Every structure is written in C-alpha cells, then in structure tokens.
Amino acid sequence: MPNKPRIIKPSWVPVHKREAFQNLNKDKNRKVYNSRKWRAFSKNYKERNPLCIKCKEKGIIKASAVTDHIQRVNVGGDIYDESNLQPLCKSCHNSKSGKEAHGYQEKPRK
Q: Is residue 12 domain-resident?
C-alpha cells in the first residue's frame, strides 16, 4: 500500500506566527489592518463604492479591490474617516503606494 507523501512546511516561518498582510512589516498599523473591525469596515465601504475612482476619472469602468487612505495613516490620516478613503483597483493602488513610498506627492483632488 502506498504511503501518503509527508507535507513539509517551510521552517523559516513557523505556522503559528503567520498572519495576513505580514509583509507590511514597516507599517505600525498592521494590527489595525488585520483587525476584524477594519476588515468589516473596508468590506462595507467597497460594497457601497464598487468602482475604482482613478479608473472612473479616465473613463474606464473597473471594480475596486482595495479601500485606500488618501492621506496615509502613518502621516496623520484618520483610519476610519470616510472622507480619507477612496476605492481603488489593485493596479491603481499599487501605483499610488509605490509613488508614495518613493516620496512622490500627488496633488489633492478638487
């Protein structure tokens, strides 16, 4: 009778220490983004705002995938203030976050 293959888990990250969004290591607000409260808040916000706002400005209809903070939280933006939030698709969010990480400041919307 054949033996079931043994599952080998990576030793460099113990199973009990894994958590969602663990790559946000420099973000002090990681616990907030992993909290049940934020996930429910973000899900509700995306249900009410289903389209990416940046794509919509370009005339493209694309579903939002991320609840993004207009002003970064670690710079002083409020986490649960809806006027500081915008729905973005993954590509727009990655573009915005990459620019912010390298010091680029976007002009505020009017």
A: no
Residue 66's beta-bridge partner residues? 88
- Taking alpha carbons only, the member of 106, 87, 105, 94 closest to residue 23 is 94
Residue 20 lies in a domain: no
Residue 51 phi, psi (nearest 5):
-110, 145
Distance from chain centroid for Cα 110: 24
Domain-embedded: residue 94: yes
pLDDT surpasses 60 at 109: no
Query: What pTM was estimated for this model as a whole?
Result: 0.67
Amino acid found at 30 = R
86 φ, ψ to 5°? -150, 140
- Domain membership of residue 16 (yes or no) is no
- Pairwise CA distance, residues 37 & 28, whole Å: 17
Domain that holds residue 41: 28-101
Query: pLDDT > 70: what percent of the chain?
Result: 75
The tokens of 62 are what? 């694309």
